[in-house]
Amino acid sequence: MSTLDAKSAQDLAARLTYNQAGLIPAIAQQADTGEVLMMAWMNVEAVVETLVSGRVCYYSRSRSKLWRKGERSGQVQMLNEFRWDCDEDTILMMVDQKGVACHTGRRNCFYNAVRNGTSEIISDVEINPDDLYS
Amino acid sequence: MSTLDAKSAQDLAARLTYNQAGLIPAIAQQADTGEVLMMAWMNVEAVVETLVSGRVCYYSRSRSKLWRKGERSGQVQMLNEFRWDCDEDTILMMVDQKGVACHTGRRNCFYNAVRNGTSEIISDVEINPDDLYS
Question: What is the pLDDT at residue A2?
Fold first, then answer.
């Protein structure tokens, strides 16, 4: 795991480019398998908290507040390595996802696919969502 | 490769959710290695073209027009499988990237990382950008 002290985290967060709403897209990829789990958004505060704590924290656009991944479901994401792109406007985090990343109870959010000329659901629900958010 | 006819592609593109600028984020992942190459944006037209042609087409925000990946550099992205997420507002494409995905000449765009408490560049330039855009 590669965390930063608060000052270094603030410096890095300030270096990134955010959209007009103050947000930057962040992709989470399972470190050992390479599975892309999800994409969500971060504001400066979420970037700093993630870098300092080593636990992934997003910004929830629907709830308009910090979203410590797993805070309700227990399905936390621990940061393995924080990366960002050439334009400094997109984050890629190598993570270790406990349980499932998707609120539907699937391991990852990208379970819709085009196969054989039509839309298919390509992964199964592993945990009943009612059990995740009870 | 899993392409669609024009009508099916239009139906799928219409089902997705776009932001206020009419764009949806699209992540490209190398199909065989799992390497996350880049994230860029698509509009409805780019989604349809990608699904029908099997060659990835983005929407360039800086140039305000369709961007057929590799049209200048030759570094094309062929679509292997088109996926999208639970909220239907993010695309994940399994692709086969010819050469390098990044305009800096690196294989992927996410070459900045936090390691050992500081920022590091973790991948090398494979093709001189002057040769990519000459």
Answer: 77
pLDDT confidence of residue B2: 77
**Chain A interface mutation, best of B7, B19, B29, B36, highest count of A Cβ atoms under 10 Å:** B36
Given strand A112-115, what is the order of strands in its sheet?
A118-121, A112-115, B77-84, B91-97, B24-30, B36-42
Arithmetic mean of pLDDT, B110-133: 96
Kindly list the residues from chain A whose CB atom is less than 8 angstroms away from the CB atom of residue B3: 114
Distance from CA of A73 to the nearest CA of B (A): 17
* Helix segments in chain B, DSSP class H: 6-15, 44-53, 129-132
Chain A: residue nearest B32 by CA?
Answer: A34
Contact criterion met (CB < 8 Å) for A8 and B118: yes
Question: What ipTM, to 2 d.p.?
Answer: 0.97
Q: Write down the pLDDT at residue A130.
A: 93
Are the C-beta atoms of B132 and B115 separated by less than 8 Å?
A: no
Give CA–CA dist B96/A62, Å, rounded. Answer: 35
Interface with chain A: mutation pick from B15, B56, B92, B115, highest number of A CBs within 10 Å: B92
Q: Answer yes or no: is pLDDT of B50 > 90.
A: yes
